[in-house]
Automatic annotation (TrEMBL):
<dbReference type="InterPro" id="IPR026875">
    <property type="entry name" value="PHydrolase_assoc_dom"/>
</dbReference>
<dbReference type="InterPro" id="IPR006674">
    <property type="entry name" value="HD_domain"/>
</dbReference>
<dbReference type="Pfam" id="PF13286">
    <property type="entry name" value="HD_assoc"/>
</dbReference>
<protein>
    <recommendedName>
        <fullName>Deoxyguanosinetriphosphate triphosphohydrolase-like protein</fullName>
    </recommendedName>
</protein>
<dbReference type="Pfam" id="PF01966">
    <property type="entry name" value="HD"/>
</dbReference>
<dbReference type="InterPro" id="IPR050135">
    <property type="entry name" value="dGTPase-like"/>
</dbReference>
<dbReference type="GO" id="GO:0006203">
    <property type="term" value="P:dGTP catabolic process"/>
</dbReference>
<dbReference type="InterPro" id="IPR023023">
    <property type="entry name" value="dNTPase_2"/>
</dbReference>
<dbReference type="GO" id="GO:0008832">
    <property type="term" value="F:dGTPase activity"/>
</dbReference>
<keyword id="KW-0378">Hydrolase</keyword>
<dbReference type="InterPro" id="IPR003607">
    <property type="entry name" value="HD/PDEase_dom"/>
</dbReference>
<comment type="similarity">
    <text>Belongs to the dGTPase family. Type 2 subfamily.</text>
</comment>
<dbReference type="InterPro" id="IPR006675">
    <property type="entry name" value="HDIG_dom"/>
</dbReference>
<feature type="domain" description="HD">
    <location>
        <begin position="75"/>
        <end position="196"/>
    </location>
</feature>
<dbReference type="InterPro" id="IPR006261">
    <property type="entry name" value="dGTPase"/>
</dbReference>
Amino acid sequence: MIDLRQYQESEETFLASYAMHSCNSKGRVHPEQPHAYRGPYARDRDRILHSSSFRRLAGKMQVFTGEMGVYHRTRLTHSFEVASVARTMARALRLNEDLTEALALMHDVGHPPYGHCGEDALSECMRDVGGFSHNQFALVIVQELEQRYSEFSGLNLTAETLGGQDVRAHKQEAAVGRSPLLEVQLVDLADSIAYDAHDVDDALQMGLLSLDELSKLDIVRRALDAISDRHGRLPKQETRQALVHELIDLQVSDLLSGAFDLLVGVDGYDADEVCESGLRLQHSDELRSERGELESFLFKTVYRHPRLIPVRNDASRRLQELFQILTRSPNRLPLRFRGRTQDRPVEQVVGEYIAGMTDQFCDTQHRFAVRNETGPLADW
């Protein structure tokens, strides 16, 4: 049987000094005995992976909806893609891969149904109780709402995994002064790398934009030139697939190149000393400018596409109607959510209940709530 001493020795061998080492973890709220062959962050990863909230991401759309086909990303596939990109970079930089993967798998578990429009609608509904943040709600899920252990509520994750998600919930504060752990920074960067490339893929496949339109953008033109130099002229579908790969590779390569240069200066520092130094990983100025151009283009031409707007509006209306019904009649909430109204505002609890739903489950509960004036709704 492998024991923790061997696990720690392997980290000392393979991880850089500035990585987050398991032996330096601040532990869990509820102390637990060490596992025989898994470190604390591997256990966090597995707890997130096996949680019901993580599985429900399969029914939550990323940008588009189920009415527009089945090719495009869900929150679940996006989370796996972010984890893949982040873990690849963590390995290259000799950071803690287990912590990186745990953070990546957790980062979207707080998203409500109906993608970005669902979050906008829910935040408007909850404006009197501070609005809604999917990053903050992820912490509520893993600390309170998940019920997988008899000894405590939540998943009892390590302080570092919870702290990484808290950074996402307070990005403005985290952008100055003491910097987050490098693993936390890496996941945030991997998230934007993945969704930029994959939103391009989904939009092209669905016919919401064309390669000709995209080729006017500097980063896309650079990627297409690299594809042409490597493969010559490809069929349209193969070009789309190659473009996604090249967009990811361009961004990852640029980030790693800058990171290698930065991290030479902190070789020998531990993770806490790097945070105190305020070191922040980032893309080159050129690529940041190109990514900004791409994201602005996607916002205008894809996220506000005429085919999407009526679908988004209908979804927002259903969510808002359900919220109004339940805040007027909180007795229709499932039992455990009714219990939470004893010491929390009704609007907050209704928002939590709705935010945990998949798209289809929200549709079903909306239909039931509208047609049945008294019956309680189902728990998720």
